[in-house]
Design goal:
Elements (H helix, E strand, L loop, with lengths): L7 E12 L2 E10 L3 H19 L9 H6 L12 H17 L6 E7 L4 H19 L1 E8 L3 H13 L2 E3 L12 E3 L10 E3 L5 H17 L3 H5 L28
Parallel strand pairs: 1-4, 4-7
Antiparallel strand pairs: 1-2, 2-3, 5-6
Length: 249
């Protein structure tokens, strides 16, 4: 009789938000075994928005456009800017509630105009965390940089020099060690954000962190710069113990 091993696995949904020189990626790790529950949770949130605010469940929630009301083709005409800001704020409480399905959130923020480096930092932390969790990851990203990101992941599977946080690696005396992405499987998958509640949620997370890092007078007026601070248990703080939110920097 053939035995079967129970392999742990996570889907990692990723989206970004940028305002040069700041580049941010937010990633939502969803255990495959709890994907159905998590999806139903997000679907309930979207059903609530339709019932209470008339926002169609098929309407794409894109943070910048949602908050400004631009490009909505009338979908947000009856919702005031103040109410849209409240909905945006509440979406972070929804993400925190997803902890009940073991959903976790990674965030990276770099202020040196190196978007590729920010993405690499995120992938390295995801890979290291999958080792700690005894799991594997499959990446699901927003459309737009399919070829570029796929090449990056493939390269990092073969060649991924990591510097030691002590200056040199004790066992070899080398400045770097080739620690490949052995816990991220297959090429990244790319989906239109319009067709993924998960990617839309990551878009809100990334924009919320952007406005926490770089608030504007308008976002401060509506409290948007504080939305990210609702996150607690969902945050993978082990990514950076020197940052109160575990943000990779």
């Amino acid at each position: 009789m053939v035995g079967f091993c129970h392999l742990r696995m996570h889907f990692i949904y990723i989206d970004d938000s940028s305002e040069r020189p700041t580049h941010i990626f937010s990633a939502m790790a969803v255990p495959v075994s709890r994907w159905n529950e998590t999806f139903l949770g997000l679907k309930q949130w979207r059903t609530h928005l339709r019932t209470i605010h008339g926002i169609s469940t098929s309407y794409e929630l894109h943070a910048n456009q949602f908050l400004s009301g631009r490009g909505s083709l009338g979908a947000l005409n009856t919702i005031s800017r103040h109410k849209r800001a409240q909905i945006f704020h509440t979406s972070f409480a929804v993400t925190e509630w997803l902890l009940s399905f073991d959903v976790r959130v990674f965030n990276v923020c770099l202020n040196d105009d190196r978007q590729d480096w920010a993405f690499e930092r995120l992938l390295n932390r995801i890979n290291r965390t999958m080792h700690a969790w005894g799991s594997y990851a499959h990446l699901i990203c927003d459309e737009g940089k399919e070829e570029h990101y796929t090449k990056m992941v493939r390269r990092m599977r073969v060649f991924n020099p990591i510097p030691s946080n002590r200056g040199i690696w004790d066992d070899t005396g080398s400045l770097t060690r080739n620690i490949t992405l052995d816990r991220i499987i297959e090429d990244p998958q790319f989906k239109s954000s319009a067709r993924s509640y998960f990617i839309q949620q990551c878009d809100f997370l990334a924009y919320g962190l952007l406005r926490k890092e770089r608030p504007t007078p308008k976002t401060k007026r509506y409290g948007i710069h504080k939305s990210f601070e609702q996150l607690d248990g969902t945050l993978v703080r082990e990514c950076n113990l020197r940052d109160p939110y575990g943000i990779i920097r």
